[in-house]
Every structure is written in structure tokens, then in C-alpha cells.
Amino acid sequence: MGKNITLVGGNGDGQTCKVANQIIVALNIEAVGEALLFASCMGADPTKVRQALMGSLRRVFWKCTASG
Predict the structure, then answer these.
(1) Is residue 3 part of a domain?
(2) What's the CA gap between 35 and 31, in Å, rounded?
(3) Which has the least CB within 10 A, 11, 51, 59, 63?
(4) What's the CA gap between 40 and 45, in Å, rounded?
């Protein structure tokens, strides 16, 4: 089980929080797909664009998790 447990409220609030999280995840997946499609349409190699973005995203994620 998870080590970080946060009580978000009463009955059903945990499920609401889970759905909110899934909305965020889905939108991020869609955004990445749109970004790669855009890059491809503009003539960039989507594999190289993905590689470049993964480096940026890793640094942003590390900063966010390290400061929190």
C-alpha cells in the first residue's frame, strides 16, 4: 500500500479526489499526443521531440517533487 496517505474529507471525497487525479492524467496524455502530432506536422522527428521533452519533463518533475 501507499506510504503517503491524505485524508481529503468525508465519505466519497477520496473517490472524488481519485477522479480528479484521473482527469489530470488523461489531459496530460492527450497533451503529449497533441504536442507530438504538432511536431510531426511541422516536420520534426517525433522520436527526437519525445526524447527532448522527456529530459525537460524529468527536470520539471524533479523540481516539483524536491520542493514539496
Answers:
(1) no
(2) 6
(3) 11
(4) 6
Annotated active-site positions, please?
A: 18
Write out the DSSP string of the chain: --S-----SSTTHHHHHHHHHHHHHHHHHHHHHHHHHHHHHTT--HHHHHHHHHHHHHHHHHHHHHH-
- CB of 47 closer than 8 Å to CB of 34: no
pLDDT for 45 beyond 90? yes
Query: Does a structural domain hold residue 23?
Result: yes
Q: What's this model's pTM, rounded to 2 decimal places?
A: 0.66
Tens-place pLDDT, residues 7-38: 999 999 999 999 999 999 999 899 989 999 99
